[in-house]
Amino acid sequence: MTESSIQRDKWNSKAGFIIAAAGSAIGLGNIWRFPYVAGENGGAAFVILYILFVLLIGLPVMIAELTIGRNTQKNPIGAFLKLFPKSSWKYFGVMGVLTGIGILSFYGVIAGYTIGYFVKLLLGQFDTIAGAVESQRIFEEFTANPYVSVGYLFVFLTFTGYIVLGGISAGIEKWAKILMPILFVLLIILAIRSITLDGAIKGLEFYLEPDFSKVTASTFVMALGQALFSLSLGMGAMITYGSYLSKKDNIISSAASVCFFDTLIAILAGLVMFPALFAMGMNPSGGPGLVFIVLPSIFSKFPGGIYFGAGIFLLLSVAALTSTISLLEVAVSYFVDEKKWTRKKATVLMSIFAFICGVPSALSMGSSDWLSDLPILHIGVLELMNAVFGNYSLALGSLLVAIFAGYKWGVKAVKREVHQFGNEFKYFWLWSFLIRFLCPIAISIILGYIIITGNYF
């Protein structure tokens, strides 16, 4: 008997799904990107806008994705084929699968760096660092070594593939129940250490006291973009995870729980970063280099700083792993469902494919001048992959989800699915308005912003 002939795997419990789905949403975007974007956009004012957009845009789209998945019990391609077999919506599903692998390929490179830095800190390579200039040199030397960059990419994708190989209940859910508590405990410990540093109060004021005079049109766009892209929406991950849900589970409360934990982790990450930065007199708007360049330059400057730094990079590694699992599962579920591959075959081949696709991104970070600055485009391969899959595809995917749920499949069909086994859809009228009008408009603004300005999230 082949694996594909066995009954489709499901989550063991609603709690297991929430933990795994929250893990999918919680990633480097929450812990690495959220603090520096907040720092660049006014601190607390940005945080308030971010939370508002999670509620008004992220939650409605997540409800739509989970409902599509549970109704069809299929991967993204299979879901649209089942609902409208003769339409072109299946190509939206194809885009979701390709987006998952595309993001996994370059995301795995950055995730690999977090493992590498965790090792470097344990080996004492930042014990006597003089400042940001030396930290910059260490990072450039680290990323310029092709064996290091490609090697850590391989290690990270191997971890990811190992977990996905176990299936939904015995693999993804089991490991999510291990990794997510570790992540949360690490955040709490690091946040306590950070806010107890001398001078940390200035960082707390910056982070928790809103200054709306700093809010601009760009702040709104960045907050909306962060809310949308931090929830793993628009690439089929939530459709896939939703397809393993029991019909008895309440989709609305499940989606709300995932959004809550995703937002909580992002806010806690700010409590780790900002007090430490202000305590050391560093600029909170450190940009993408905040974690790999700015933070390592302060670890040796306060008691226990090296262990604090090792904890941050362990935290980042765990957060990245909970996300890469869902990225790989999108493609694996397609080949298991539609092509009748065994999970082992699908996982191994998709992991190898993601690794091959990720090698150019790994080499573009200093190992190859040509890959670091592509002709005509004048951006590196990793930046190009982030633009195509991490921005355009996710924005377009989220827009299409809203249109599909709001108009093609219809809000009444969503309501019927949510109402399975007596579950209620409270505030259906509000969700219906948001998914049909506000979500498409807001996401279109994001898509237009990145097309016109070329600024990526």
Write the layout of secondary structure elements.
Layout: H1 14-25, H2 28-40, H3 44-72, H4 76-83, H5 90-122, H6 132-144, H7 146-165, H8 168-195, H9 200-208, H10 217-229, H11 237-242, H12 251-279, H13 305-337, H14 343-363, H15 369-372, H16 381-408, H17 411-418, H18 428-453
Helix pairs in contact: 1-8, 1-12, 1-13, 2-10, 2-12, 3-4, 3-10, 3-12, 3-16, 3-18, 4-5, 5-7, 5-13, 5-14, 5-16, 7-8, 7-13, 7-14, 8-12, 8-13, 9-12, 10-18, 13-14, 14-16, 16-18
Describe this structure in words.
With 457 residues, this protein is mainly α. It has a single domain, classed as Hydantoin permease (Orthogonal Bundle). It is 73% helix and 0% strand. It contains 18 helices and no strands. Helix 5 crosses helix 16. The longest helix has 33 residues. The protein starts with 13 loop residues before the first helix and ends with a helix.
